[in-house]
Amino acid sequence: MGDGPARRMDLLLEADADSDQEELDALTRQLRERLLELEIERAELNRSGAVPGRAKPGEAIAVGALAVTAAPVVLRSVVQTVVSWLGNRPVRTAGISIGDDRLELRGVSSDGQRALIDAFLARHDAPPSASADPAPGATSASGSGPAQGPEPTPDGLADR
After folding, report:
1. How many whole angstroms separate alpha carbon 8 and alpha carbon 18?
2. 25 HSE (CA, 13 A, CB side)
3. Domain count of the chain?
4. Within a domain: 78
5. Where are the alpha helices (DSSP H) in 12-91?
6. Which residue, 29, 46, 92, 158, is the most exposed by fewest CB within 10 angstroms?
7. Rounded to an integer, what distance in angstroms lies between the CA atom of residue 51 and that of residue 68?
């Protein structure tokens, strides 16, 4: 796979109000299968810290959460797969975190989102892609509403 040490990317899906936990679990597993088609090291259902009822500690899974491990060169493909996957699913948002850095994708397309995604990926050494699909809405976890990040320059890259 190459191009630097593997990175862990945490994905958290937030379902529409009319979706239940079982549907969100099924959607999470569908996205996991889609991501496994990429050249990633792994995509696992993310374990939560809380253990419900009589469950054993190793059995608790956070519904809607995935942990993806991939080389930086593959991170862009992971994000693009999540973006395209969101299109026709009853998922309101998909949060993507690498360490403390978070990007929130929405199923609604907007003009500024490619620059936000590029800036997010640039902070994690993911090479830019000339064939990037238009991305859906994204917001920062540091506040509500659109992400506050670097302003795109005329060439479409974000200033650091």
Report:
1. 31
2. 8
3. 1
4. yes
5. 21-36, 72-86
6. 29
7. 22
Of 134, 130, 92, which Cα lies nearest the Cα of 116?
A: 134
CA separation for the pair 123, 31 (Å, rounded): 24
Domain hosting 113: range is: 7-140
- 154's CB contacts (< 8 A; 6+ apart) are none
Q: Return the pLDDT at 101.
A: 95
- The rounded distance, in Å, linking the Cα atoms of 60 and 55 is 7
Residue 68 belongs to some domain of the structure: yes
Q: What angle do CA 43, 2, 127 make, to 5 degrees?
A: 85
Give per-residue pLDDT as tens, 40-63. 999 999 865 444 444 444 444 567
